[in-house]
């Protein structure tokens, strides 16, 4: 072990550089959001006034509300569908390449393509665009991610505990609620939290399936249009809030699912 | 091949011509067995012989393709697992990972909707019997292999099943612990007075623990009897080879009532003529020190086992050297390459038609 | 048994139906659109044509295609070159600390893409942080214009997809049997030769998985070129966007989208084959 100290030092330096690259831009954003002057030119003191400014911005609050609705509905639907799908796939007797590809596709398909396809699809069927079409679209990739997380858990799932429960006198229904579900629960919640953050952050597909008008603008769309108008201190504050929510959800998700890393 | 199904009057469990097909594969093939009340019964066979499938049919996890399972005279073949008064101890133990030891053990009683006080009393009692007191609040992941095994046992026993099924219960333990647990399981079975049916691939384990055992191969029952019966009087060449160590000498029995192979001739009255294999255990072969009438051979290998010494002796009659087990202190001073003469007691030989 | 006895297909059906209705059907629809003509006022005229695909070879668009491919390839290469040492360092860290390091390497990947891209505007623009730092450091000249350039787009893409490449390479490294490395050292190979002859070949599947992913997502990217490349800088993703929202030429946009999908399918298939072949050699070696 002693011989590897030099290598460890190299490894540590690598990690410091890479983590610096990953986190410095984010740290700058967060720092600036508390800068009185709001601009990187000069630090004029700590202030939360840009956060206050957000609260007074009806557009932002409206967009945040829309985002929340989309994320909640998309998460609930995709968690149920994704979990059932995971159990369905993992208990199949034979693997199906077609099914694997279908479930993998939402995670790799370029989002701009899925976005224009959905726009074409909805307008071909004369579906009025709005929050509901965003929800429908978000469920597509949300459920794929929920499914992959629950499947990872199922791969390590010892099916004999289900049989043990039956053997000890529990019906299939009791077994599901007292054994299977509690054991899968952390993975399901982790999947739901990931779906939630993905939905909160998703921009392009929401942009294409939201339709015209302000009524169904989501937060990422609001941020995008703000960025195009130029850098403002409010964006930094808004970005900080959005990233904090995602990070919190992800930390929680990771903590719940930590058993799997062992 | 199969023994005629011997009917036992006080059988607690009767298995009648039970078969199980998985697609084109017949995993269990017309097995009939009677299991006595309070007996320690072992299902023994190499992996893939159908013993686990048989056990899973008893527990209710596989439906028989044909045949019946009778528990105290009642047909339970089509009952769901949760409705059968039998319990299974799983090979992987299958402890519920999100429940403490005490919750694991109480689970089965809660399913019976017993009053809380009774559940508690019975759980405490079984934990004392299985030496688990003090581990009540541990989670399965905090237990050693031996402790997990005892929790799995306690969880099944606390239900007071009419029959306890054990699937390779000692398979996951190391050798020392396994030997201790063999005796402990036997003692426990005696104390609780429950019929045990154990599945194992380890013939030694079966010999040590079982009152009676059944040997399966390719889904078929080859022989059923006490460990001594099976060891001393195997009715099948596979059984003879599978249980303990057996030497086989290929030869033939002539019209004159003699078994002959190259370099040997043995009178064997009353056995049908034809090509035949002679089977003899290493402890039934002796070194012939006088006379010079024995079978000539040469020592190729020697292994010292403390009490015994096993000599491998090459003889003309068979390709594989004969194993000869002799008392180590008496037969000292042999050397590899040494010529030697062996004698075989005709009454200890078994004959299997080739 | 209750697990096996539940009907797997029934459980999977709602999700499969959802994906078929809202992913496969829309993609088939634009696959169809790609072979039709556009109407004078936008929309689709149902007359069969291959013109949309022919237009891809128009020098104007072919240039954008080649540019996108070149940028995506550069991004992929850079991401792998940065991610490999990072993943290697994580895999050599104490076992107990690895999950945490990995988690923090991947965390940015799951957070808002738009904001992470925006952060680079803050850093790179003329009044941005980097120029400010340079001025404090005594730099006297004109502020550097780093934003709205190919370099900015490449930086943004590498930044955004780096975590995934680290994850992919790490998962290969963590599956690597350490005794193989020790065996190589024992047989007389130095650390560098051991890395080149044992470690690298055995972790290529992870490199390939990460690389294909970055390439596919980069070549079809829309947000990064739009924000960090400014209006002047076009990639295929922006072209698709324009056909649908500005030029109103849906059939051509659909054709471009289908080409992106085709690139994705080809690369993923190649990668799956390579991974299977690598797994095959390992299996054979184990025999």
UniProtKB/TrEMBL annotation, chain A:
Its main location: membrane. The keyword Transmembrane applies. The keyword S-adenosyl-L-methionine does not apply. It is a multi-pass membrane protein. GO terms for biological process: transmembrane transport. One of its GO terms (cellular component) is plasma membrane. This is ABC transporter permease.
From TrEMBL, chain B:
It catalyses: ATP + H2O + polyamine-[polyamine-binding protein]Side 1 = ADP + phosphate + polyamineSide 2 + [polyamine-binding protein]Side 1. Keywords: ATP-binding, Cell inner membrane, Cell membrane, Membrane, Nucleotide-binding, Translocase, Transport. GO terms for molecular function: ABC-type polyamine transporter activity; ATP binding; ATP hydrolysis activity. SUPFAM superfamilies: MOP-like, P-loop containing nucleoside triphosphate hydrolases. It holds the Pfam family ABC_tran. Residues 13-243 form the ABC transporter domain. Its EC number is 7.6.2.11. SMART domains: AAA (SM00382). GO terms for cellular component: ATP-binding cassette (ABC) transporter complex. The keyword Ubl conjugation does not apply. One of its GO terms (biological process) is putrescine transport. It is an enzyme of class 7 (translocase). PANTHER family: PUTRESCINE TRANSPORT ATP-BINDING PROTEIN POTG, SPERMIDINE/PUTRESCINE IMPORT ATP-BINDING PROTEIN POTA. Belongs to the ABC transporter superfamily. Spermidine/putrescine importer (TC 3.A.1.11.1) family. The complex is composed of two ATP-binding proteins (PotA), two transmembrane proteins (PotB and PotC) and a solute-binding protein (PotD). Part of the ABC transporter complex PotABCD involved in spermidine/putrescine import. Responsible for energy coupling to the transport system. NCBIfam families: potA. This is Spermidine/putrescine import ATP-binding protein PotA.
């Amino acid at each position: 072990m002693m011989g590897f100290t030099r290598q460890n030092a190299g490894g540590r330096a690598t990690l410091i550089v890479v983590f610096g690259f990953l986190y410095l831009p984010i740290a700058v954003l967060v720092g600036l959001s508390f800068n009185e002057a709001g601009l990187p030119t000069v630090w004029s003191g700590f202030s939360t006034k840009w956060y206050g400014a957000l609260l007074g911005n009806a557009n932002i609050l409206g967009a945040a509300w829309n985002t929340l609705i989309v994320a909640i509905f998309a998460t609930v639907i995709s968690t149920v569908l994704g979990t059932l799908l995971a159990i369905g796939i993992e208990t199949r007797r034979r693997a199906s390449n077609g099914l694997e590809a279908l479930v993998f596709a939402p995670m790799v398909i370029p989002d701009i393509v899925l976005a224009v396809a959905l726009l074409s699809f909805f307008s071909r069927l004369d579906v009025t665009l709005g929050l509901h079409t965003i929800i429908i679209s978000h469920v597509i990739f949300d459920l794929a991610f929920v499914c992959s997380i629950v499947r990872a858990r199922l791969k390590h799932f010892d099916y004999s505990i289900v049989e043990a429960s039956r053997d000890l006198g529990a019906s299939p229904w009791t077994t599901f609620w007292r054994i299977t579900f509690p054991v899968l629960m952390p993975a399901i919640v982790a999947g739901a939290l990931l779906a939630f953050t993905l939905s909160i952050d998703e921009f392009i597909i929401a942009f294409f399936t939201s339709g015209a008008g302000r009524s169904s603008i989501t937060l990422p769309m609001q941020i995008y249009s703000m960025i195009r108008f130029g850098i403002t201190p409010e964006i930094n504050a808004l970005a900080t809030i959005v990233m904090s929510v995602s990070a919190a959800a992800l930390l929680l998700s990771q903590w719940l699912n930590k058993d799997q890393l062992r | 091949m199969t023994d005629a199904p011997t009917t036992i009057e006080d059988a607690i469990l009767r298995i009648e011509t039970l078969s199980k097909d998985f697609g084109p594969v017949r995993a269990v093939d017309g097995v009939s067995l009677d299991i006595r009340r309070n007996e320690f019964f072992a299902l023994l066979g190499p992996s893939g012989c159908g013993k686990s499938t048989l056990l899973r049919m008893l527990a209710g996890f596989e439906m028989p393709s044909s045949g019946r399972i009778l528990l105290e005279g009642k047909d339970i073949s089509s009952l769901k697992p949760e409705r059968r008064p039998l319990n299974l101890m799983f090979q992987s133990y299958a402890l519920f990972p999100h429940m403490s030891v005490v919750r694991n053990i109480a689970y089965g009683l809660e399913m019976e909707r017993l009053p809380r006080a009774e559940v508690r009393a019975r759980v405490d009692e079984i934990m004392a019997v299985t030496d688990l007191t003090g581990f009540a609040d541990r989670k399965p992941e905090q237990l050693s292999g031996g402790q997990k095994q005892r929790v799995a046992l306690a969880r099944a026993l606390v239900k007071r099943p009419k029959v306890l099924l054990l699937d390779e219960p000692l398979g996951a333990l190391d050798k020392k612990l396994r030997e201790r647990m063999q005796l402990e399981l036997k003692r426990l079975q005696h104390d609780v007075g429950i019929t045990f049916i154990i599945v194992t691939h380890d013939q030694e384990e079966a010999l040590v623990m079982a009152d009676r055992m059944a040997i399966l191969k390719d889904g078929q029952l080859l022989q059923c009897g006490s460990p001594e019966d099976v060891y001393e009087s195997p009715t099948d060449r596979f059984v003879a080879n599978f249980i303990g160590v057996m030497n086989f000498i290929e030869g033939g029995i002539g019209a004159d009532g003699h078994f002959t192979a190259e370099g040997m001739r043995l009178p064997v009255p009353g056995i049908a003529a034809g090509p035949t294999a002679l089977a003899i255990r290493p402890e039934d072969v002796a070194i012939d020190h006088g006379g010079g009438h024995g079978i000539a051979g040469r020592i190729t290998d020697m292994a010292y086992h403390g009490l015994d010494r096993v000599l491998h002796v090459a003889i003309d009659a068979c390709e594989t050297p004969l194993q000869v087990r002799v008392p180590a202190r008496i037969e000292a001073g042999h050397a590899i390459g040494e010529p030697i003469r062996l004698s075989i007691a005709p009454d200890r030989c078994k004959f299997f038609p080739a | 048994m209750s697990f096996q006895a539940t009907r797997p297909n029934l459980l999977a059906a709602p999700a499969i139906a959802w994906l078929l209705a809202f992913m496969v059907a829309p993609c088939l629809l634009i696959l169809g659109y790609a072979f039709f003509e556009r109407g004078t006022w936008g929309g689709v005229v149902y007359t069969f044509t291959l013109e949309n695909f022919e237009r891809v070879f128009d020098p104007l668009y072919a240039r954008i295609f080649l540019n996108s491919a070149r940028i995506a390839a550069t991004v992929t290469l850079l991401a792998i070159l940065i991610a490999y040492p990072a993943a290697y360092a994580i895999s050599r860290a104490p076992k107990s600390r690895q999950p945490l390091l990995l988690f923090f390497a991947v965390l940015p990947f799951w957070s808002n893409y738009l904001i992470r891209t925006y952060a680079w505007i803050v850093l790179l623009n003329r009044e941005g942080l980097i120029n400010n730092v340079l001025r404090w450091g005594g730099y006297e000249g004109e502020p550097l214009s780093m934003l709205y350039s190919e370099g900015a787009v490449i930086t943004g893409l590498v930044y955004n997809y780096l975590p995934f490449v680290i994850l992919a390479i790490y998962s290969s490294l963590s599956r690597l049997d350490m005794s193989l490395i020790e065996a190589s050292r024992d047989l007389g190979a130095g650390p560098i030769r051991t890395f080149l002859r044992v470690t690298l070949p055995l972790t290529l599947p992870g490199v390939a998985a990460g690389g294909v992913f970055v390439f596919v997502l980069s070549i079809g990217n829309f947000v990064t070129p739009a924000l960090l490349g400014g209006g002047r800088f076009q990639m295929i993703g922006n072209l698709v966007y324009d056909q649908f929202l500005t030029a109103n030429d849906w059939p051509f946009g659909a054709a471009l989208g289908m080409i992106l999908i085709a690139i994705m399918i080809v690369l993923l298939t190649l990668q799956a084959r390579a991974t299977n072949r690598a797994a095959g050699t390992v299996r054979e070696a184990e025999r």
